[in-house]
């Protein structure tokens, strides 16, 4: 399938609730290398869950350019440690593990970080996250770009088990 | 749950087409002819102004007014508006809202729009009380119920598919939960498409063509009527019960006399086509005004109101309790200035309108409709950012 990169750049601008730090990308001329566009970002609330020390961030990443780009790392002041995770089958069981090499955003395509799929794991949370909070999140990509986001915290219950793996002893 | 590549680029392509297209005609296809790429009916959620106001009337609409929770301060309200803004964009483009628990219910190409409004309390929180929407006094004919009146925030979702409206509203209500709680909700419907697929004015439950006298979108008259200097407007929501039982007891000519227009076409009683100008001077053989002194179309006409106009865009409603049905009009009026434009009209109609005999206003609320927003921005950023 051949895709029109320029169209996508115009169609999917960043709509994150930035607090002025995140630069809204300008529509990209064909010759430039466009940045990844980030949409629909959110973090799952931890208040009322079994383990309030970790959660995950989800979003849609769009790469309007014609070279693959990778999300290589993420950081947030609310978390002691942030990792890029994937869900994988191990010994017949779905487990969550660190994603080696980061999350690829193929040229002229998307990557979706979603519950049950790849996600950004926020660990060692300094305090529980309530629905209605906002969390700063910084993403680093293989094209040497950095994106500072302000991501809303939302209540969510579906597939909660994936983010709260039952202790192996059980 | 992960959309396929094809679907994703479908979304992107649809969003790129942007503009609203009305009246999607049905095309008969030959088996051998490949289906033409569908025309996008998504309405661009971004812009200098919130887009629903100038878009064609949606088939289905739902309004939810919210009261802010006691703990919601200015900063919290800004957080709510940032996350609502992201929902507005995602849902308007046919994508699930972030964190959507029923993502399959988000559908593209249903002309879904969301309008966000601010009640007087929002301006108090922002420290700009005097900039808030002017509140309306209770009129002589009003029988207002608290359950249909007031509100600190408004969400108005419209689309040509009711499931999409209901789904979007559910997301806005869920995302508001930490900040605000619903005060009232009303839903209604409008048919602005004729049998030939072309746009028409549409009818209310009295059977009247309703909306003819509106200033036309895109004219200087429209802009002067609707837009305030900051690119926003105001919205008056009046829930008006129509007494269809007593209305049905009238003859057609009595019904037409009450409004001053024909039921068949909406034409003035002095004309033949819907958009003919009213001749307010014309008299019949007995010397009586053809358009009665208390006819609604006369009393509300701009020429009788020092040129004052409003832009009406209502929704019909029915409300069932057991086997009893209440019918009415969710009267929605946009104007730059409530006190200067809407209130004098309302006062005049309350005093003398022939329609008062069959209509009762049971709910009333006023909202400021802030300007639209661009990528990277959010609704209300100027007031609360
Ligand atoms: C009680 C329910 C109401 C019904 C059923 C109703 C119905 C109608 C109808 C059928 C028309 C003529 C066609 C048209 O121009 O759209 C009309 C015109 C109009 N109505 Fe109403 N209306 C109602 C309430 C109101 C209220 C509360 C206001 C404002 C306070 C209002 C203001 C107007 C205006 C400004 C016009 C246009 C006059 C012009 O030709 O310039 N109406 N209405």
Mean pLDDT of chain B: 92
The computed structural class of chain B is: alpha+beta
CATH level 3 topology of chain B: Alpha-Beta Plaits
The largest sheet of chain B, given as strand count, sense and whether it forms a barrel, is: 5 strands, antiparallel
Organism (chain B): Kribbella antibiotica
Domain Dyp-type peroxidase C-terminal (chain B): 202-372
Cofactor (chain B): heme b
Protein name (chain B): Dyp-type peroxidase
How would you briefly describe this protein structure?
Chain B: Keywords: Heme, Iron, Metal-binding, Oxidoreductase, Peroxidase, Signal. Chain A has 170 residues and is mainly beta.
Task: Name the features.
heterodimer, A: mainly beta, Immunoglobulin-like, 10-stranded mixed beta sheet, disordered N terminus, B: about 375 residues, alpha+beta, Alpha-Beta Plaits, 4-stranded antiparallel beta sheet, 9 strands, binds protoporphyrin IX containing FE, Dyp_perox_C (chain B), oxidoreductase (chain B), Dyp-type peroxidase (chain B), metal-binding (chain B), heme binding (chain B)
Task: Provide an overview of this structure.
Chain B: Keywords: Heme, Iron, Metal-binding, Oxidoreductase, Peroxidase, Signal. Chain B: GO terms for molecular function: heme binding; metal ion binding; peroxidase activity. Chain B: Residues 202-372 form the Dyp-type peroxidase C-terminal domain. The complex is a heterodimer of chains A (170) and B (385). Chain A is mainly beta and 170 residues long. Chain A has one helix at 5-11, and strands spanning 37-44, 55-63, 69-75, 79-90, 93-98, 103-105, 109-113, 119-125, 134-141, 146-154. In chain A, strands 1, 2, 3, 4, 5, 6, 7, 8, 9 and 10 form a 10-stranded mixed beta sheet that branches. In chain A, a hairpin with a 4-residue loop joins strand 9 (134-141) and strand 10. Residues 1-31 and 162-170 of chain A have low confidence and may be disordered. Chain B has a single domain (51-384), classed as Alpha-Beta Plaits. Chain B has helices at 5-17, 74-92, 120-125, 162-176, 220-226, 244-248, 252-259, 296-299, 338-352, 381-384, and strands at residues 60-68, 113-118, 153-159, 180-189, 233-242, 311-312, 315-321, 324-335, 359-369. In chain B, strands 5, 6, 7, 8 and 9 form a 5-stranded antiparallel beta sheet that branches. In chain B, helix 2 packs antiparallel against helix 4. Residues 1-30 of chain B have low confidence and may be disordered. Classes of the chains: A mainly beta (170), B alpha+beta (385). Chain A binds chain B through residues 1, 3, 7-8, 10-18, 22-24, 39-42, 44, 58-60, 62, 109-110, 112, 114-117, 130-134, 150, 152, 154-158, and chain B through 1-3, 5-6, 8-9, 12-13, 15-16, 46, 76, 79-80, 82-83, 85-86, 89-90, 95-99, 101, 174-175, 177-179, 374-376, 378. The structure holds protoporphyrin IX containing FE (HEM). Residues 204, 206, 208-213, 238, 240, 259, 261, 266, 296-297, 300-302, 310, 312, 329, 331, 345-346, 349, 355, 359 of chain B line the site of protoporphyrin IX containing FE. The site of protoporphyrin IX containing FE has 27 residues of chain B, from strand 5, helix 8, strand 8 and helix 9.
């Amino acid at each position: 399938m051949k895709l029109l990169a320029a169209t996508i750049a115009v169609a999917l601008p960043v709509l994150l609730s930035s607090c002025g730090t995140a630069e809204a990308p300008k529509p990209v001329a064909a010759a430039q290398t466009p940045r990844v566009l980030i949409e629909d970002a959110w973090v799952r609330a931890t208040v009322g869950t079994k383990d309030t020390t970790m959660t995950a961030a989800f979003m849609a990443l769009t790469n309007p350019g014609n070279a693959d780009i990778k999300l290589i790392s993420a950081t947030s002041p609310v978390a002691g440690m942030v990792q890029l995770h994937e869900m994988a089958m191990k010994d017949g069981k779905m487990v969550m593990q660190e994603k080696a090499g980061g999350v690829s955003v193929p040229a002229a395509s998307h990557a979706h970080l979603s519950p049950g799929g790849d996600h950004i794991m926020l660990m060692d949370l300094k305090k529980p996250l309530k629905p209605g909070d906002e969390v700063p999140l910084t993403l680093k990509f293989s094209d040497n770009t950095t994106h500072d986001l302000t991501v809303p915290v939302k209540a969510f219950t579906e597939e909660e088990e994936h983010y709260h793996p039952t202790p192996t002893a059980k | 749950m992960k959309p396929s590549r094809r679907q994703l680029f479908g979304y992107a392509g649809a969003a790129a087409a942007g503009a609203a297209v009305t009246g999607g005609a049905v095309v008969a296809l030959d088996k051998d002819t490949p289906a033409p790429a569908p025309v996008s009916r998504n309405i661009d959620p971004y812009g200098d102004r919130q887009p629903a106001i100038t878009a064609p009337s949606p088939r289905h609409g739902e309004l939810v007014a919210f009261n802010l929770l006691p703990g919601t301060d200015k900063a919290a309200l800004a957080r709510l508006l940032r996350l609502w803004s992201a929902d507005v964009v995602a849902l308007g483009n046919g994508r699930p809202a972030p964190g959507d628990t029923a993502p399959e219910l988000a559908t593209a190409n249903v002309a879904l729009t969301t309008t966000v409004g601010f009640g007087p309390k929002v301006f108090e929180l922002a420290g700009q009380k005097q900039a808030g929407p002017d509140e309306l006094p209770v009129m002589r004919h009003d029988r207002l119920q608290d359950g249909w009146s007031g509100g600190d925030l408004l969400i108005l979702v419209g689309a040509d598919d009711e499931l999409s409206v209901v789904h979007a509203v559910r997301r806005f209500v869920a995302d508001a939960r930490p900040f605000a709680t619903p005060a009232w909700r009303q839903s209604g419907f409008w048919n602005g498409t004729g049998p030939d697929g072309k746009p028409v004015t549409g009818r209310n439950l009295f059977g009247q063509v309703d909306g003819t006298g509106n200033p036309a979108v895109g004219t200087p008259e429209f802009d002067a009527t609707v837009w305030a200097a900051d690119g926003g407007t105001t919205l008056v929501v009046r829930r008006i019960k129509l007494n269809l039982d007593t209305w049905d007891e009238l003859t057609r000519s009595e019904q037409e006399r009450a409004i001053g227009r024909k039921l068949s076409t909406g034409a003035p009683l002095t004309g033949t086509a819907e958009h003919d100008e009213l001749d307010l001077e014309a008299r019949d053989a007995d010397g009586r005004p053809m358009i009665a002194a208390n006819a609604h179309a006369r009393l509300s006409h701009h020429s009788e109101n020092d040129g004052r106009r409003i832009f009406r865009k209502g929704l019909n409603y029915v409300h069932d309790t057991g086997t009893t049905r209440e019918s009415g009009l969710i009267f929605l009026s946009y104007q730059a200035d409530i006190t200067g434009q809407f209130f004098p009209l309302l006062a005049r109609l309350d005093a003398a309108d022939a329609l008062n005999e069959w209509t009762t206003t049971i709910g009333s609320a006023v909202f400021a409709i802030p300007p639209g927003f661009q990528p990277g921005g959010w609704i209300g950023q100027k007031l609360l950012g």
